[in-house]
C-alpha cells in the first residue's frame, strides 16, 4: 500500500516543461529518495505535491493521491491538513521571527488542538535541543545547520504523516549533514514517511529504501536504494565513484582539448 | 513656553491618530505587499457611516457600526478586487488601489455633497486647562484611544496566532503557505483591521477643532502616507514614530507659522512631506524599515 501515489505527472512553467509523465510511489513508513542534478525537476515534483506550483506560475496534469485522497485541486493549507508537510529548499526559516515563533507558525496548519501542539513541541525539542536553548533568538542568527533543524522542527509541528524534504543537506558541513541524516532516520523510525529529495546521492541512498533518479524531467531509473547505489550509472553520475570505466572516461577526457566540458557546453 | 507645550501635546495627539492610519497602511503592506492608495477612502467610509447613523442610534453604536462598516469595506475590497489580481506585479496592485480609491471617494463625496457632517461625539468643544496649558478634550481622548488601540494591536501582532501568521506571511508567503497558513485569510484580515483602525481615526480627524466630516477629510488622512513612509513602510514601530513625527511637525509648523512667514503661508500642510523627504535622503528605507538580517 502506497501512502503517496504520483501518476503520470507533467508540469510546465509556461512554455518550459519541467516534468514529463512522472510516476512515483512513496510507501507508508519508509524513506523514499528522489535524486537528480540541477534542473532535473526534483523541486518541481515537491511543489506539485504541496500545491505551491501556483507561486511559480506552474501548471500540471496527472494525479497525486495521498492515502486515496486526491491532492490536486486542494490548496497548500489543505495539503498540510491532510498530513503532508514540506520542508522547503534552502530552509526558508522566518529570519525576523524568533525560533519559538517559527515553531508556532509551523503549528498553525495542524489539525490537532492545543494538546497535540504542545506534544509536538516537546518532541521537536527532544529531537533538536538547540531549538529549546535558542527559543528567543531571531532565527536569522542561527547557523545553517541550526536553521535546517528549525525548518524540519517547524514542519514537524504540524504533525505530518508524510514529510517532504527538499535538499536538507544543501550547503551544510559534512558533519552537520550527517547529523541531519540521522535525524531524518529518527523521524522516520517514529512513524513518519519521508520523501527525500537530494543532490547528495550518497547520503540519500544510504537512508532510503527505494529511490528514483530524475533526469531532465523524467524518471531515468528507479528501484531499491541498495541496487541503485550499486549500479554503475548512479555511481559514476551521482556518487563520484571512480571505477574502471569512469577512469577510462576521464582518460578520454584528458586527451580532448583542455576545456572545462561542463562550462563550454 | 505654554504655546509650545500646547502645540506639542496637540501634535502628539493628532500624531497618534496619523499613527492609527499609518498602522493600517503598514499592516496591508506587510501582509500583501500592496501599497494601499485606497486607505483614505476606507477612512472616509467609516466616518460617513458613523455620521449618518449617530442621530438615530446614538453615538457609540454608530461608531461601532462605522468601524465594522469600514472593516467590511476593507475586506470587500480585498475579496472582490485585490484577490483577482493576486500574483500580479506590485505596481499593478498599487494602481488597482488608486482605481478603488477613485470609485469609493467619488461615491462618498456624491452622497456627502458639500455638507459638513458632525459625528455626534460626546466631547464637543470642551477644553481642559492644567497649569495654564489648555487642551481640547477631543485631543486627550484621541491620544488615549489611539494609544490603547495601538498597544492592543501590537500585543496581538506579537503574541497571538493571528499575529504569528501575519508576520510569517509577511516575511515569506510561499513558506507560510507550506506551513498551512491560509494567505487569503491573512490578507483579508489585514484589510479588515486596517479599515477598522481607519474608521476610529476618522472620528478623531473630524471632531473639534476640525469642523466635521467633509470631502477634505480624505486629504487630511493622506498625511498618514508620509508618516508610514518615513517610518519605513514595513515597520509597525515605524508607523508609530512616523505618525508622531508628522503630527508634531505639522502642529509646530502651523502654530509658529507667523514666525516662519518667509516660507509663505501653509507651511504646516507642507511640513510632513518636507520631513519625509529629508528622512528618506538620509535613510532610504525609512527610520525603521528593514535591512536584511541574515547570516550568509
From TrEMBL, chain A:
<keyword id="KW-0813">Transport</keyword>
<dbReference type="InterPro" id="IPR017871">
    <property type="entry name" value="ABC_transporter-like_CS"/>
</dbReference>
<dbReference type="InterPro" id="IPR052156">
    <property type="entry name" value="BCAA_Transport_ATP-bd_LivF"/>
</dbReference>
<keyword id="KW-0029">Amino-acid transport</keyword>
<keyword id="KW-0067">ATP-binding</keyword>
<dbReference type="GO" id="GO:0005524">
    <property type="term" value="F:ATP binding"/>
</dbReference>
<dbReference type="GO" id="GO:0015658">
    <property type="term" value="F:branched-chain amino acid transmembrane transporter activity"/>
</dbReference>
<dbReference type="GO" id="GO:0015807">
    <property type="term" value="P:L-amino acid transport"/>
</dbReference>
<comment type="similarity">
    <text>Belongs to the ABC transporter superfamily.</text>
</comment>
<feature type="domain" description="ABC transporter">
    <location>
        <begin position="4"/>
        <end position="241"/>
    </location>
</feature>
<dbReference type="Pfam" id="PF00005">
    <property type="entry name" value="ABC_tran"/>
</dbReference>
<dbReference type="InterPro" id="IPR003439">
    <property type="entry name" value="ABC_transporter-like_ATP-bd"/>
</dbReference>
<dbReference type="InterPro" id="IPR027417">
    <property type="entry name" value="P-loop_NTPase"/>
</dbReference>
<dbReference type="InterPro" id="IPR003593">
    <property type="entry name" value="AAA+_ATPase"/>
</dbReference>
<protein>
    <submittedName>
        <fullName>ABC transporter ATP-binding protein</fullName>
    </submittedName>
</protein>
<dbReference type="GO" id="GO:0016887">
    <property type="term" value="F:ATP hydrolysis activity"/>
</dbReference>
<keyword id="KW-0547">Nucleotide-binding</keyword>
From TrEMBL, chain B:
<keyword id="KW-0029">Amino-acid transport</keyword>
<keyword id="KW-1003">Cell membrane</keyword>
<feature type="transmembrane region" description="Helical">
    <location>
        <begin position="92"/>
        <end position="109"/>
    </location>
</feature>
<dbReference type="Pfam" id="PF02653">
    <property type="entry name" value="BPD_transp_2"/>
</dbReference>
<feature type="transmembrane region" description="Helical">
    <location>
        <begin position="59"/>
        <end position="80"/>
    </location>
</feature>
<feature type="transmembrane region" description="Helical">
    <location>
        <begin position="6"/>
        <end position="27"/>
    </location>
</feature>
<comment type="similarity">
    <text>Belongs to the binding-protein-dependent transport system permease family. LivHM subfamily.</text>
</comment>
<feature type="transmembrane region" description="Helical">
    <location>
        <begin position="140"/>
        <end position="157"/>
    </location>
</feature>
<dbReference type="InterPro" id="IPR001851">
    <property type="entry name" value="ABC_transp_permease"/>
</dbReference>
<dbReference type="InterPro" id="IPR052157">
    <property type="entry name" value="BCAA_transport_permease"/>
</dbReference>
<dbReference type="GO" id="GO:0022857">
    <property type="term" value="F:transmembrane transporter activity"/>
</dbReference>
<keyword id="KW-1133">Transmembrane helix</keyword>
<feature type="transmembrane region" description="Helical">
    <location>
        <begin position="188"/>
        <end position="208"/>
    </location>
</feature>
<feature type="transmembrane region" description="Helical">
    <location>
        <begin position="270"/>
        <end position="290"/>
    </location>
</feature>
<keyword id="KW-0472">Membrane</keyword>
<keyword id="KW-0813">Transport</keyword>
<protein>
    <submittedName>
        <fullName>Branched-chain amino acid ABC transporter permease</fullName>
    </submittedName>
</protein>
<dbReference type="GO" id="GO:0005886">
    <property type="term" value="C:plasma membrane"/>
</dbReference>
<dbReference type="GO" id="GO:0006865">
    <property type="term" value="P:amino acid transport"/>
</dbReference>
<keyword id="KW-0812">Transmembrane</keyword>
